[in-house]
Amino acid sequence: MYDVAIIGCGVIGSSIAYRLSKFNLKTVVLEKENDVAMGCTRANSAIIHAGYDPAEGTLMAKLNVRSVDLTKELCEKLDVPYAQIGSLVLAFSDEESEHVRRLYDRGVTNGVPGLRILSYDEAKAMEPNIADNVTCALYAPTAAVINPWEYALALAETAVTNGVELRLEAEVKSIAKTDAGFAITAGEDTIEAKYVINCAGAEADVIHDMVLPHAFEILPSKGAYYLLDKSEGTRTKHVVFQCPTKVGKGVLVSPTVHGNLIVGPNAADCAVGDTSAGADDLAFVRKMAVKSVPSIDFRQNIRNFAGVRPNSTNDDFIIHMQDGFCDVAGIKSPGLASAAGIAEYVEQMLTDNGVVLTEKASYTDTRTQPRFKEMSHEARAEIVKKDPKFGRVICRCETITEGEIIDSIRRPIVPRTVDAIKRRCCAGMGRCQGGFCGPRVVEILARELGVSRQDIDKDKTGSYIVRERED
Questions:
Q1: Could you tell me if 121 and 231 lie in one domain?
Q2: Which residue of the set 49, 99, 238, 258 is catalytic?
């Protein structure tokens, strides 16, 4: 019998698992995919929003603003790339200028520090490449960019280090209420838990309906992106937004923590799991982006992708506990920015519902990640002397060594696929997108895991790369 079962290991599920791992609880996380952060978490804008956009008094507003400092602290502890670069919301008309002023007032009410309304000249001085017809801009200095999937992975790894059990490829098929709590059918197993926390993202309504009367629906919305080469990475210095609308925060232009430029997203209704970046989606993104930054060179595009937002029929986050079952659903933007505060909020809900939380005598709350290309010459020489595999560069675009790949494989959550390695140490994230290093990553994975190359998938289960020839 587990004390807590968490369904879903995106950034919300991993944040809660991390938070609970410091207590004397028997906790299990059930994830239907073959790795963590495989849903909404791995395909988004990677923005830690300052908190001026959510309506006053909502959980979104409260937890977004609360999480800004928590996220920065966690990224420092867990060695996750984080850059507090600030954001600008551009206005292009008198009407949009009024909207910017309303966002400023809302941000002040929400407790966002340092907000300023900039004139065109002030905004242009900060971002020389923005359009000449900008009328004013809202500046939020606390906004930041991170690596979202590494953030979730770091949280989940640390939780596992502290005794949380992670079950991959454990899709929840049914949940039955029992006298002691819940019986959960996940994959081929039945798991019993006193409390269940539903963090199933775009399928949270399906999980909810297994236990409680229908109360909300998830309305998936797809957003497509351009990821541009590092030659475009300095096109802007801040996250550059347009005025938000009912369907989202609009098309943004932003540097990434890896030095690229990300442009997107649009907003289009879609089915769960539809992550296709279609021609119409991308054409819209491109058209809107050049309104903000006309000089973007889209010829430098190295990858397109799309992510699914778990919008819901509620305007706010859905965080509610009933009879031991806790929904954490409809966590659309600013979900990534709010994850740390959501975990803190859920911890308090468990306490309020009678769960006794006593801290462990021994607890690990830090993590480090070797990054060869960021090391000094002296540090490189030292690590290569200890392990020569750190002197063998596998991914030329990103300067990722065999030592880093092996280190990724030997961590608490073992990667099984080429893209899982990519998410952990950036091998294959560069200009050639794995064209050069991909076959070597397959070889290293197969060797270290003791399996055939035919057993190595690119991403999700079944996405094979090497197949035996059939006569």
A1: yes
A2: 49
